[in-house]
Design goal:
Distance between the termini: 18 Å
Number of domains: 1
Radius of gyration: 15 Å
Largest sheet: 8 strands, mixed
Strand order of the largest sheet: 1-2-8-7-3-6-5-4
Number of helices: 4
Strand content: 25-35%
Length: 172
């Protein structure tokens, strides 16, 4: 958990925890991660309703260079955002799915084939379909303004990505 007496975020090789004090700060953290996003990257955004998943996703898309307005895919389930170089960023929301077969039918598995980065909100609902290697970001509602963010890297690629993210976001 974040320690207010210690200004640095908690960090080890596979995890990072940080307390965001505003939606703007949450989005800025997403921007920093989005600047590092590559085709095939998988960002799993977990947390209760109102925890800041879509706010963080907006930041990722902005940092990645999305030309499109970022909105929650809750009702359409999948949004694609394009960039000037024709690359795509996929934003999948599993909240309304009843089964993992629905996610498979929507092409969730194909999104991991390196065509663009993928963000999944409510990843715990489709866990058996997503690769083991991923960056899992848990957002937790602390109070009206603050959110606790915990980043967990699974796999060497994501451990390296988390180190780069920590360096550009926090200088650590």
């Amino acid at each position: 958990m974040y320690n207010a007496a210690r200004p640095m975020p908690i960090l080890d090789a596979r995890s990072l925890e940080f307390l965001s004090h505003s939606p703007e700060q949450t989005e800025r953290l997403g921007v920093r991660l989005g600047e590092l996003a590559q085709p095939g990257d998988l960002f799993c955004l977990a947390g209760d309703l109102g925890a800041g998943k879509t706010t963080f996703a907006k930041g990722i898309a902005r940092g990645w260079g999305a030309l499109d307005r970022v909105t929650s895919p809750s009702f359409v389930l999948v949004n694609e955002y394009r960039r000037a170089d024709s690359n795509r960023l996929y934003h999948f929301d599993a909240f309304r799915l009843a089964t993992t077969q629905e996610a498979a039918a929507l092409g969730l598995g194909e999104m991991f084939n390196g065509h663009g980065p993928t963000m999944i909100e409510w990843p715990e609902r489709v866990l058996e379909l997503i690769p083991e290697d991923r960056l899992w970001i848990s957002l937790e509602w602390v109070d009206e303004m603050r959110r606790n963010l915990r980043f967990e890297a699974r796999g060497l690629h994501y451990e390296r990505l988390l180190r780069k993210f920590s360096k550009i976001a926090f200088g650590a």
